């Protein structure tokens, strides 16, 4: 008997019919056999570990991946490091926290993108669709203009969460909160907050303040230190990992609100909890990195092509893939035009746009 989220499908006129149709459609659409998710998870995990070591090695100082590996082993009491104290400092005080911070931000944005696309049933949903980016940007710009840079992470986090609350309030004020109403409310809130941000920049920003605001709006991991990297990793552990356990609920949402309710899912409460958790996670991450687009949008779509639409595989694989993608995007940003450094948001947009178009072409060919 087919089950969703641990519950049996018992309504022959409702979900059984939907499930039968979905099963029939799946059997017609999936003639080719996909590799198991466990195999992809091992590949991505190995790629993530390799990416961390190589990304830490890359830079102006002469450090090889083997040196980084021996230094890591030495930290765990296995052998001795071959690096001088100066290069040890470069590895552990500059590059390692930045690379781990990039991995945490990429993983978190990918998780949020996959969940929002399922909850809102919109393939274009990402962590910024509901105004989160605009809210975080507005909060960050306010404190930069006021000269309170130390409060920037708090202001960005508060702006992201406030924007989500405003979106959900607008979506639910006229009655039951629906998916389409939530998306439209998010677009409206995002437009208003973006306009307010532009107004503040136009009215008050000058010189260094203008450059600082532009750098934050385009995203950067240059200021990541161990405390901020550990904060991002902690957010992944406390919010991201529980979100990975929501796969059963997301499978039910794929059939629509009415069908999800027939499976015993408290639709409104589940939607509020999932969107609220993604907002908290996004707020924690963008408070450290600034606004970085395309990771939450592109990574889940790319993972679906190799592992299928099932969320039990999609969520963990997107987590690993998002970490790898942002590690390399940030590495390109800091090394491509060395000593000049690009905002990482430019790199993700330049890479993400063409990749997303290629994914659209591949999906169209598969669906013929």
UniProtKB/TrEMBL annotation:
Protein's membrane topology: Multi-pass membrane protein
Source domain of life: Bacteria
A GO cellular-component term linked to this record: plasma membrane
Segments crossing the lipid bilayer: 39-61, 99-120, 127-149, 155-175, 182-205, 225-253, 274-299, 342-362
GO biological process, one term: siderophore-iron import into cell
A Pfam family that the UniProt record links to this protein: FecCD
The keyword Cell membrane belongs to this UniProt entry's keyword annotation: yes
Gene3D superfamilies: ABC transporter involved in vitamin B12 uptake, BtuC
Intracellular or extracellular location(s): Cell membrane
One of the record's GO molecular function terms: transmembrane transporter activity
Keywords: Cell membrane, Membrane, Transmembrane, Transmembrane helix, Transport
Span list, region Disordered: 1-32
Family label: Belongs to the binding-protein-dependent transport system permease family. FecCD subfamily.
Listed name of the protein: Iron complex transport system permease protein
Organism encoding this protein: Microbacterium pseudoresistens
């Amino acid at each position: 008997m087919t089950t969703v989220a641990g519950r049996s499908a018992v309504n022959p006129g409702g979900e059984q019919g939907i499930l039968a149709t979905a099963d029939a459609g799946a059997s017609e659409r999936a003639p080719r056999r996909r590799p198991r998710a466990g195999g992809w998870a091992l590949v991505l995990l190995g790629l993530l570990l390799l990416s961390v070591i190589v990304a830490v090695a890359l830079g102006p100082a002469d450090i090889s991946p083997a040196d980084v590996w021996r230094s890591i082993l030495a930290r765990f009491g296995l052998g001795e490091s071959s690096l001088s104290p100066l290069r040890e400092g470069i590895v552990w005080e500059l590059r390692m926290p930045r690379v781990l911070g990039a991995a945490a931000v990429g993983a978190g944005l990918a998780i949020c993108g996959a969940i929002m696309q399922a909850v809102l049933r919109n393939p274009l949903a990402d962590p910024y669709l509901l105004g989160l980016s605009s809210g975080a940007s507005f909060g960050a710009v306010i404190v930069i203009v006021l000269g309170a840079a130390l409060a920037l992470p708090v202001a960005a986090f508060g702006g992201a969460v406030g924007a989500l609350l405003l979106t959900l309030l607008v979506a639910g004020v006229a009655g039951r909160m629906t998916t389409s109403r939530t998306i439209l409310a998010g677009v409206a809130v995002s437009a208003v907050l973006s306009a307010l941000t532009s107004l503040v920049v136009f009215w008050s920003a000058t010189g260094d303040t203008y450059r600082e605001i532009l750098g934050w709006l385009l995203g950067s991991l240059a200021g990541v230190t161990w405390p901020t990297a550990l904060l991002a990793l902690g957010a992944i552990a406390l919010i991201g990992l529980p979100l990975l356990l929501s796969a059963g609920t997301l499978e039910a949402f794929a059939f629509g609100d009415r069908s999800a309710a027939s499976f015993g899912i408290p639709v409104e409460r589940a939607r509020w909890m999932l969107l609220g958790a993604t907002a908290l996670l996004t707020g924690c991450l963008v408070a450290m990195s600034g606004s970085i687009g395309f990771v939450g949008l592109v990574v889940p779509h790319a993972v679906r092509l190799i592992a299928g639409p099932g969320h039990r595989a999609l969520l963990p694989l997107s987590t690993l893939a998002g970490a790898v993608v942002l590690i390399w995007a940030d590495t390109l940003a800091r090394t491509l035009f060395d000593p000049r450094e690009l905002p990482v948001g430019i790199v993700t947009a330049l890479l993400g746009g063409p990749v997303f178009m290629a994914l659209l072409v591949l999906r169209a060919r598969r669906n013929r």
